[in-house]
């Protein structure tokens, strides 16, 4: 994987003395970004009052280990008067990114806070390797859409998610998308922990259902439909949020999409 080169290139463009508030994503790729932040700090190339906003326990630890200052989303004022944004740039990984820069995230179970931070950012820059670059979501990522749910009724929510797309409720979807749902009824699987018996428990104390449904032709419609199920806390589809995506290729080159 060329993540190292990827972050190496993107750092000059996105993290420098002009960035004062930086969102730090979660996952394995972001670890490389944290390493570069340490280097930039050493070279005195970061804003002297840089604040980093974590998206998970892991991300907060990365910030602390890098010797940077962590801040909370709600402690930050708006960047510009009348604007909703309080973060200059967020750099985050992704599980898959489609041609329109819609993404599936949550493979690491951090998508609730990742989405909160992304929504408060002027720019969301995704970094990933070439295997995550696709035309349509669901083409490459075959583990389903991560959906964070309340543990209070996870099996009820699971059943509802598996039946969540009555044709009459599907608005704004192409005929192809509707047909895809007809033939790919969603299957929701409770994510299991690896070195603990039982389910994964998120940083927020919730469970994750991975909902497989084949290709997703209309990410915004699917995101909205999934969110309508009571007990769904956040959906790992990030529609219309990323401003650019950088992919590290096998040969070490970079593909950047805006
Ligand atoms: O869980 C997440 O949302 C992560 O950001 C994930 O999407 C990317 O993780 P990776 O860099 O380990 O592949």
UniProtKB/TrEMBL annotation:
Pathway in which the depicted protein is active: Carbohydrate degradation; pentose phosphate pathway; D-ribose 5-phosphate from D-ribulose 5-phosphate (non-oxidative stage): step 1/1
Similarity annotation: Belongs to the ribose 5-phosphate isomerase family.
UniProt-listed SUPFAM superfamilies: D-ribose-5-phosphate isomerase (RpiA), lid domain, NagB/RpiA/CoA transferase-like
Entries under Gene3D superfamilies matching the protein: 3.30.70.260, 3.40.50.1360
GO terms, molecular function: ribose-5-phosphate isomerase activity
Transmembrane domains' residue ranges: none
Pfam family, one: Rib_5-P_isom_A
Descriptive protein name: Ribose-5-phosphate isomerase
PANTHER family in the record: RIBOSE-5-PHOSPHATE ISOMERASE (PTHR11934:SF0)
Gene Ontology CC annotations of this record: cytoplasm
Organism: Coemansia pectinata
EC number of the protein: 5.3.1.6
Catalytic activities: aldehydo-D-ribose 5-phosphate = D-ribulose 5-phosphate
One of the protein's GO biological processes: D-ribose metabolic process
InterPro entries: NagB/RpiA_transferase-like, Ribose5P_isomerase_type_A
Keyword Isomerase annotated: yes
Class of enzymatic activity (EC top level): isomerase
Keywords tagged on the record: Isomerase
Source domain of life: Eukaryota
Keyword Isomerase: yes
